[in-house]
Amino acid sequence: MTIIKKIQILKDIDVTKATFEAKMFAEMLGFKQNEQYMIATAVSELATNITRYAEKGEIILRKVERNSKIGMEIIAEDKGSGIEDIGKAMEDSFSTSLKSLGLGLPGVKRFMDEFMIDSQRNVGTRIITRKWV
């Protein structure tokens, strides 16, 4: 059975909720404490990007299994304006916002075992990440 949690991201308080839910979900799946905090930080970055650049979206937390391994999949989806240059967005210190250090997406990629991004102008962005126990 696949366990799924969905968190709507509409306001800053939803970022906090998603971060908390991610940490608790990771704990339930058996991740070590330091991994729980890495996952929670990744979700915080993804949810913050939704509020900052798209105004609304969704974080989906899902238990995944592959070859007898258990993991956690995080999907961040929005219907925002999309990322103009994914290559640039993945560089440390690059940001289109004055409120950002530009470490979010590269940090998420470093924290997680798998990272995929699909973004289309005026359609939205979908980021899928996975971490394995």
Task: Provide keyphrases for this structure.
4 helices; 39% helix; alpha+beta; Heat Shock Protein 90
Write up this protein.
The chain is of the alpha+beta class. The protein has a single domain, classed as Histidine kinase-like ATPase, C-terminal domain (Heat Shock Protein 90).
Taking all residues together, what is the mean pLDDT? 89
Helix content: 25-40%
H/E element order: EHHEEHHEE
Task: Let me know the CATH homologous superfamily.
Answer: Histidine kinase-like ATPase, C-terminal domain
Q: Report how far apart the termini are.
A: 17 Å
What is the structure about, briefly put?
By secondary structure, the protein is α+β, with helices and mostly antiparallel strands. It has helices at 12-29, 33-54, 86-89, 104-111; strands spanning 4-9, 57-66, 69-78, 114-120, 124-132.
Layout of helices and strands:
Elements (H helix, E strand, L loop, with lengths): L3 E6 L2 H18 L3 H22 L2 E10 L2 E10 L7 H4 L14 H8 L2 E7 L3 E9 L1
